[in-house]
Write a structure and sequence with these properties.
Layout (H helix, E strand, L loop, with lengths): L4 H6 L1 H4 L5 H10 L1 E5 L5 H11 L3 E5 L24 H12 L4 E5 L8 H6 L3 E4 L4 H14 L3 E7 L2 E7 L8 H4 L12 H4 L5 H18 L8 E6 L4 E6 L17
Parallel strand pairs: 1-2, 1-4, 2-3, 4-5
Antiparallel strand pairs: 5-6, 6-7, 7-8
Helix pairs in contact: 4-5, 4-10
The structure holds zinc ion.
């Protein structure tokens, strides 16, 4: 695949980067990346992935735009309230970059059929807002052997990791084998969330995805980044595969 003169101009700032260059930009253009959830995390992730020239972007979400989304879900405008998020997202992404294919799925990802869905993509980003979806995405990615960039957040703090046991390190369930007890992890609607935080975390998801696809730098395999927006601090903790993990069996453990 060669880049047209339009694309050479559009992606010029990537192409001059030593770690991306023409080969990395062509890898981005050949990639299929699925984003689960078009919410606070999914919106900025999708915007930056479309701007970066990912060849095909998938987005799956069953929700409609509500007024309280607009404080942080930057793909949507006031006039979109009541419309399906994936339909609005598809229009916005096509406006941003006509070179990108968009596959919009107005549905909720559940355990049923998730592995088959995920297997059609090279990389999955999970920006979902609930534990059943998060565990279903992880299990499907492990079963299909697909790397997963996942983030989660609450109030002022977010976390981010690349779960990729086939290429080393733990899966999500190795580190979080059980969802927290009811009430210990309140939703954004209950606990609140500062609007710019998903901008930071969703952009970091896109950054990890671009690095992974282009083959640049070092991915967050076996590491969890925690960003504390209230104090402007981030820290990184090492994570390990568990041999008794019910999802991946600890296959990514260093032997
Ligand atoms: Zn595991």
């Amino acid at each position: 695949m060669t880049l047209s003169s339009d694309e050479l101009d559009r992606y010029a700032r990537h192409i001059v980067l030593r770690e991306v260059g023409g080969p990395g930009q062509r890898r981005l253009g050949a990639a299929r990346v699925l984003v689960v959830g078009a919410g606070g995390l999914g919106c900025p992730a999708l915007l930056y992935l479309a701007a970066a020239g990912i060849g095909t972007l998938g987005v799956i979400d069953d929700d409609t735009v509500s007024l309280s989304n607009l404080q942080r879900q930057v793909l949507f405008a006031t006039a979109d309230v009541g419309r399906p998020k994936v339909a609005v997202a598809e229009e916005a992404l096509r406006r941003l970059n006509p070179h990108v294919g968009v596959e919009a799925m107005e549905a909720r990802l559940t355990e049923t059929g998730a592995e088959r869905l995920v297997a059609g993509w090279d990389l999955v980003l999970d920006g979902s807002d609930n534990f059943p979806t998060r565990y279903a995405v992880n299990a499907a990615c492990v079963a299909a052997g697909r790397p997963l960039v996942a983030a989660a957040m609450s109030q002022w703090e977010g976390q981010l990791a690349l779960w990729d046991p086939d290429r080393g390190g733990p899966c999500y369930a190795c580190v979080f084998p059980e969802p927290p007890a009811a009430g210990l992890a309140p939703s954004c609607a209950e606990a609140g969330i500062v609007g710019a935080l998903p901008g930071v975390m969703g952009s970091m998801m896109a950054l990890e995805a671009i690095k992974h696809v282009a083959g640049a730098g070092e991915g967050l395999r076996g590491r969890l980044v925690i960003f504390d927006g209230l104090h402007g601090e981030s820290r990184r903790i090492a994570t390990r595969a568990r041999g008794d993990c019910a999802v991946c069996g600890g296959r990514g453990a260093v032997r």
